[in-house]
Fold this sequence. Notes:
By secondary structure, the chain is an alpha+beta fold. The protein has three helices and three strands. The chain has one domain (8-78). Helix content is 46%, strand content 22%. The longest helix has 17 residues, at 62-78. It starts with 7 loop residues before the first strand and ends in a 5-residue tail after the last helix.
Amino acid sequence: MRKMSIKYDRNNKKAGRNKTEYSTYECSVRRNKKTCDAKPISKDKLENIVIDTIETKIMANIDDLTDKVYDYLQVRIKKPIRP
Length: 83
């Protein structure tokens, strides 16, 4: 089964009586060719998910990550980069 690659583009729309502007990320194939079933994703929701994921995956393990980077750099400094 071939996996379809989806490219999302940012889209700004105005809606309602007061023409409130809102932003979404929408599949470019859906917008241009009308053949994709992927629904638009709210910009705010997507950005919050990304930030939350960064905080939980990276920031929660920042001490371990800094230790690993420090150890790696110590090894690289002791070994010549080119023989």
